[in-house]
Amino acid sequence: MARRVVLTLGCLLILAATGQAQEWATKMFTVSSHDFGTVARGAKAEFRFQFKNLYEEDLHIKGVRSSCGCTTSQISKNDLKTFQTAEIIADFNTRDFLGQRSATLFVDIDRPFQAEVQLRVTGFIRNDVVLQPGAIDLGTVDLGTEVERKLQVVYSGGREDWKIVDVKTADPNFEVEINGPARNGRNIAYELLIRMTKGAPVGYIKDQLIIVTNDFRAGELPVDMAGRVISEITISPTSLFMGTVHPGQTVTKKLLVRGKKPFRIIDVKCPDKAFEIEASKEAKSVHLIPVVFTAGDDAGKVARKISLLTDQGENVVQAFTAYALVVKSDPAGKAADSEDANDE
Hints:
flat, Immunoglobulin-like, single chain, 25 strands, 3 domains, mainly beta, eight-stranded mixed beta sheet
């Protein structure tokens, strides 16, 4: 099983003294650049730079700024404890800018040590293909419900033979109907009907449609899709971090389970006695359940999937993951070993 050393602030100071102060911060990011490729005007073009606090000290992101108005950015979470993750969200502005564009995002870190990480985005925004809307927003959808959305694609580049030849998606729960073309002067317009079928599973949807054209310059145009399919009963958070604890320490966190009508939790399935969950048998629409974790003697990440069975027929709340980081320090204050946060 993979192992990772949790660095302490002392280690970071040593890195700073050897001229590697920026390197520790860059290592937290999965990637540092992204190419959007060719996108249509008005299309939603967003990329999330994921990063993880690999260190024992708490991490704080002071802010992020962009070198170009063609890209705006935001931070999903400013404060991260050990092995917690967050994202720098880059939004490529295809509404107000055209042509080849690029930007550098400067991520300003002020704790546990001063550093700046630079992230790069590039892309080409076409002025002759317009999408309306810029992305497929499915919203919140009840499980077992079919949903349909419309997408307008308008080409004004002057080619009389321009056409959409196919629309692709890797998700088998989507169907696309192509209507058109309709011609109005130099414009060639298509209407796409995107249907999410009743078989779509519970969870978040984040995927892309790929519009395939006969255009040799850019034969494929991506369109983002996003939404959430919910069941009669939902659980939050689906990933419950119990915290960083020492051997023998006990911690308690709360889990929120919500239903559209009163329900009872009739059973809890957990493979590890280190986690204790006592749910009320009372029928109610909202259950606030304490989850108790008692750390064992071994250092490392402890993660378990736990399911709650309800009285709503076969409707089982999606399994959530409860996890904790058990750390031990030697007398000299050296870093403790822990399992990689990606290991299950």
